[in-house]
Amino acid sequence: QEMGVAVPRERPLDASRIEWIRMGTTVATNALLERRGERVALLLTRGFRDLLHIGTQARPRIFDLEAAMPAALYEEVIEVDERLIPQQPGCRLPGSEALPRLAGGCGAGTTGLCCTGDTLLLWRPLDLTALRRELERVLARGIRSLAVLLLHSYAWPGHEEQVGALARELGFQHVSLSSAVTAMARAVPRGHTACADAYLTPCIRRYLDGFCAGFAERLRGVPVLFMRSDGGLTPMEHFSGARAVLSGPAGGVVGYAVTTYRQQDGQPVIGFDMGGTSTDVSRYAGEYEHVFEATTAGVSIQAPQLDINTVAAGGGSMLFFRSGLFVVGPESAGAHPGPACYRKGGPPTVTDANLCLGRLLPEFFPRIFGPGEDQPLCRDAALRALRGLAERVGAGAPGQPPMSVEEVAMGFIRVANEAMCRPIRALTQARGHDTSRHVLACFGGAGGQHACAIARALGMKKVFIHKYSGVLSAYGMALADVVHEAQVPCALRYEPAAFAQLDERIAALEQECRQALAAQGFSSDQIRTEAFLHLRYERTDCALMCSAKGHPPTPGSCRAGDFAAAFASRCVPTGTPGSGWGLPHPATLTPSPCHRYRTEFGFTIPDRAVVVDDVRVRGTGSTGISCESPLAPSGEPPRVETVTRCYFEEGYLETPVFLLEQLSCDHSIPGPAIIIDKNRQERGAGGTILVEPGCTASLTELGDVCIAVGSGRPSAVGTQLDPVQLSIFSHRFMSIAEQMGRILQRTAISTNIKERLDFSCALFGPDGGLVSNAPHIPVHLGAMQETVQFQIRRLGDDLREGDVLLSNHPCAGGSHLPDLTVITPVFWPGVPKPVFFVASRGHHADIGGITPGSMPPHSKALHEEGAVFVSFKLVKDGVFQEEAVTEALMAPGRVAGCSGTRNLQDNLSDLRAQVAANQKGIQLVAELIGLYGLGVVQAYMGHIQANAELAVREMLRGFAARWGAAVEAEDRMDDGSPIRLRVQVDPQEGSAVFDFSGSGHEVYGNSNAPRAITLSALIYCLRCMVGQDIPLNQGCLAPVRVIIPKGSILDPSPEAAVVGGNVLTSQRVVDVIFKAFGVCAASQGCMNNVTFGNERVGYYETVAGGAGAGPRWHGRSGVHTHMTNTRITDPEVLEQRYPVVLQRFELRRGSGGAGRYRGGDGVCRELLFRQDMVLSVLSERRAIQPYGLRGGSPGALGLNLLLRRDGPTINLGAKTSVPVQPGDVFCLQTPGGGGFGPPGDAGDAEDGAEPAAPRSFAERGSLFEYRRAQEAV
What we know:
The protein is an alpha+beta fold. The chain is built from 27 helices and 52 strands.
């Protein structure tokens, strides 16, 4: 068509006139999402066959009892005898001095040199003879693709290379070695990446073969370049599965970065790509923002990827009215049946809402809809679908004035816009950037209808829509650079002694990049290289990939540049919380004035060594392609194609319609208006731009649309319940808690808060009732409300502006002592008492007591567990009480056998961070009140709480109708203490009494659970049973009366030890509640707390077990359940940093209870000690099995064994501390989950029906990873 030459369908295309081809593909993404890749076998070090199944041991959604996870990419596992372990100073492991050493600098694996500079010990040689038989067996099954993961292969890949050579010799067509695919530490993500590469690369090869076959001579001599996930192009022959997952969306980021960002003003840009199923959000400020590990379709891929955040909602996102809330997505109508207006019986969607409001004009769309794909969009079908929703809104809001179809449609659009604003706020404000300073670059099919409203809501003043916005991903590929990256792992400190080695490695990688790009025809002046060091503070996990760009070398730096200055560059942005209240601003916490690390993480650690994890060089070959030509001014006013009526906040307005192709650079179009790119509409790519009232669109000289966004008329909001405003306030209240959490994580210093994210932030009403809480850590749910209400009762009028409270005592709503809660009252001018409260609860690694970590397994009294605070004024009249809080934190040291806090400076820094987080909450609450008024904000606080109450009442009514009004259950702790529950449900009111009378007495030990723990467990269970997203607040407990006998194990005396109650008894409370309601069989009922250490090192972990089966699912094996979701340390990191060898970590097969649905299996975890240490274990379910339900068998008991080096095997029991010696092995066998239903029972049709999987979007990006990490606590 382009050349005017006919091309017969069956004849290959003549490629002689093609200069180059640049393209992206979704082949890899679709194969991953649909699990239609190559058949793969996974080969691992013996003892770790289930390592990728267990993964981090955290479940992806904390309220999902099924713990459903995507299917594994491999179908066969091979274990091979081989083992490398890191050499460690002070190691006293018998026989270790005789082991062969693999030491050196930066050699290849086959040279015997270790790539990182570390020394590895050859603990067990590779057995290729036995492996040959296993590989032949797998080949006989028809599997031809192999992924290889051997521990510590990133540092010495020799064993993997030998395995790869053997596999290719035997006939495997594709072999992905983890050390070759991504040579970075951490076995689990590296293994997932190798599997993804083995799973996807053969698919890509077949696709490329088919593509080339369509051209004469298979495109010989034509440069064919493919877009990779990192935003760079690579030759077709180097395009592989692990680097292809974001091939399509990456082009869009390059497109808006090149066309929207202007170097001269440096105004950062937010990319907003709204498609049919979801929306992609990203940021560009002169450099591409990469992440180096991200999850797509349940697979964690460890490779450079653009930070593209996929969130709801898209044009096809479905609309719901649930429990009084307007809900948009995440379910999507897809392309088939698609939105209701597609004429295929689809559900109401965002697209239908826009069509009902007149914002989409069917006459400008192609006739490709309906069963025959030959009809126009149907506005009547959209109206019918929205009319049905309007009827449900009316039925669900009795007493409210009925809403018109247009009002309902507008409500859903506003809720969708707010849902998309939340991730943009997080992407900017979470990193210290002012959202309002950005330009919104809009592209994709649906974005033009929402861009003005979203920019206005975020305070942005400018929207930019490129003239090729409908094909911006393809256009971006034409503009992109060709990239070659080289990377090697490293384990050197960043210090003068290592600079020569680092320069040598950088020079070698730069040479590799230059040679690779020169081989593709780039001249030396077209090639640029940029060196990066992946830097982190020693004993932390927060690493930054740092370029020395802008930081030239100094006498005290590498020749490649001053990476130390880069690590500590970029000034703290203005307005960072922490100033005021007598506290130092975060920018003054250390002497250095400007710090990138502080910008990212809120602090620096001046006395801590910096470690280089990886050395990376990115080489780019620049083509300098430009395809744009300027427009000539028309000298005439813009031509109005037609006039339509569009619905806005003000009602229907006459809205002129313009065609983009008829506009010139001298045209200015005030809103309301619609601009249509007819070429895009005719291709079905979407091309409708809505210019809202108060905004003005103009064209640039190159024909792009630039919209100046006005502030708009504020709409009046009253205190009466409005379902649309209810949904919007739900987002805003949650956003306050989320942004508080971001500030806390950035400004904290401890590993527990900064990296494990073991904290919660929350907003409370004037009565202390919970309004919003983030993240949803189960053991914190509802507990902070008890703390805030205790302070209100205790202090009353003694609360003044400028005061901040600190509390952790169980009688004051505390969970266990290391969880310190900081509470700040929010005052408003003219109101004598607090109008809100904000609070943050963080787990401090140590606050004193009889053992390091303040988690003693054998404590008998509260004072043995650390420092105690009841109502301590941390800040008084705006002054941080450092001397007083220091004295209180050191006070346990005055008790015989106890110590004060062992890490005072971390405690103080984290407390300051908690105060700063609360200050951010106060600022955001004040902004909300300033916008709507105090009365309205407090009214909607009450409406949100009432909404959660409604959802719980509906659940209780449904339960009573099915199972009756009274249920009861009992379970026991291992010491025999009963946990008894009787539930009486009122089916008319939808209320219930939860009566724990008859539960055991307080124990002489630490299994006592404070009352707040039981309430947290109850809220967790109610949310799981409701089965849908609801605001988790005070309203959840409003229909519930809880009776807990004083002096019992669930409400002990003030001085009772409680550390085990938080981590163990809480699990048993959940088991009892679910048993009473018949929800699911018991899960492992334990967190398996393991601590080891000596005077030099200390380590704490919790270990997964089996999940209980339910009426429609098998229990997940090797996963954390219910009240915990903590990630476990990667095996390679564990062995690098701590004096242990992880000998075995796999599923404990057969430990799950039998049943129609099987309980999940526990795990076996074996630790070999390399130094003298003390081992502590705090566990349960070693005497009482996890119950089965409805005829299902119980799960197996857990077992804690110590295998003495030259002596007996000892059963340690459930709770103990014991000295261990080098060569001793701790074998932890965690409990399985109970089974559900009699084994072999087919069940009834209702119970056996598998629920239909809803269409949803594949969430991804740094925001998704952050939320997953928050919930993995």
